[in-house]
Amino acid sequence: MTPNPLLPDLTARAIAAAHSRTSACPCGTTVTLAERPDATVVRHADTVAKAHAPGITVTDLAPRLATATHLPEIFLPPLTTRPVDLHDRRVSLWPYGTPVDPEDPDAAPWEAAATLLAHLHRTPAPTPLPPMRGPAKAALALSRLRATTEGGPAAAVRRAWGALPSWARDEAPQPDTATLCHGDLHLGQLVRYPAPDGPWRLIDVDDLGVGVPAWDLGRPAAWYACGLLPPEEWNRFLAAYRAGGGPAVPADGDPWPALDVPARALTAQTAARAITKAVAEGRDLDEVEQALVDACDRMASVPPELVREPAK
After folding, report:
1. Burial degree of 12 (CB within 10 A; 0-12, 13-18, 19+)
2. Within a 10 A sphere around the Cβ of 221, how many other Cβ atoms?
3. Which residues contact 30 (CB under 8 A, 6 or more apart)?
C-alpha cells in the first residue's frame, strides 16, 4: 500500500511555518494532534497546521478565516487568512493554544465557553458568511447511519430525527439568517492563548456561519437532558450565557422552547455517530452511547417544541 503523503508534507509545512515565525525555534518532536478523514492537524513548537476536510474549498474557508482574524477577542486568530493547497486539501496555519484538559473535568471552562458564545452571537458578522453548518453535519451523520445499518438502535435514532423540523434536518433554510454562530461548540473547541494560560478562545471555524444561535447551546443542553452533564455544570453554563447577554434564550424563565430542537438534533447526531462507530468496530454500544439512543427513543414519542424567534 502506498503511504499517504499528506501527513509528512503537512508536518513539513508546520515546521517551515514555525521556523519562519522565529529564529530561535526550540524544535523538538512534531506532534500529530488529530488524524481523521475530516481533519489532519499537526503541531511543531508554537505553530499548528490543519488540513481541512476533503471537498472544502477556498471559497468555503477564506471568509471563515477572515472572521476569526477580525474577532481575536473571541477566536484564536489564524496566521494567514488564505488557505494553501496540499494534496487537494485546504491547509490553514495557526498559533498553538493550550486545550481543555480532559483529565480534569472539574476545571472545565463552562463559564468561559458560554461567555464567548454570548459575545459571538451579539457580534455582527464582519464579512459575508454562508449558513452555519451544524444542521448539515447532523444530516451527514444520519446519512452515514442509514448507509451502515437499518435495524436495532438505529431505528429509534431515525424516528427522533424524522420528527424534527425541516431546517434542523438541513432540508430548509434556518429561521435565523443573520446571527453569527460557531456551529460545532463543545469543550474541545476552546484553547488558552497565548499558551499556556492566556484567556480562553474558540477554535475550529469549519462550521462557522450565520444561523440559529441556540444550535451552539444544543450539545451541552443535549448532554444535560440525557443525564450526561450534571445540573450544576449546565446551570453554570446557562447562567454565564445569560449574563453575557446571549440572544439564543430569554434572559430569564424557561430556556427550553429555544433549546429543544437543537438539543434533539444533536442528540440524534451523536447517537448516529456512536452507532456507526460501534458497527464499524464490531461491538455493542457502551453505557454512554446507549443513553443517547434511549434518549432518542423517548424523544420520538414527544413532539419537539416549536422553534421561536431569537430573543432581542
Report:
1. middle
2. 27
3. 11, 14, 15, 42, 43, 44
Spatial distance between the Cα atoms of 229 and 114, rounded to a whole number of angstroms: 15
Torsion, Cα of 261, 262, 266, 267 (10° steps): -40
pTM: predicted TM-score of the whole model, two decimal places: 0.93
> How far from 43 is each of 153, 230, 274, 311, CA to CA, in Å?
38, 33, 28, 40
> 3-state DSSP call for residue 162?
helix
Summarised one tens digit per residue, pLDDT across range 277-293 is 999 999 999 999 999 99
Paired strand residues for 34:
41
Q: How far apart are CA 198 and CA 188, in angstroms?
A: 16
250 with 258: CB under 8 angstroms?
yes
Beta-carbon neighbour count of residue 70 at 10 Å?
A: 15
Helix axes 134-148, 214-225, angle to 10 degrees: 50
Amino acid at 311: A
Using a 10 angstrom Cβ sphere, with 0-12 exposed, 13-18 middle and 19 or more buried, the burial of residue 2 is exposed
For the residues 205-214, what does the mean pLDDT come to? 98
Q: Which three cell numbers stand for residue 239?
A: 447562567
Residue 287's CB is within 10 A of a number of other CB atoms, namely 7
CA dihedral (69, 62, 187, 139) in degrees, to 10, reads 150
- Write the pLDDT tens digit of every residue in 143-183: 999 999 988 899 999 999 999 999 999 999 999 999 999 99
Q: Classify 55 as helix, strand or coil.
A: coil
Q: For position 305, what pLDDT does the model report? A: 65
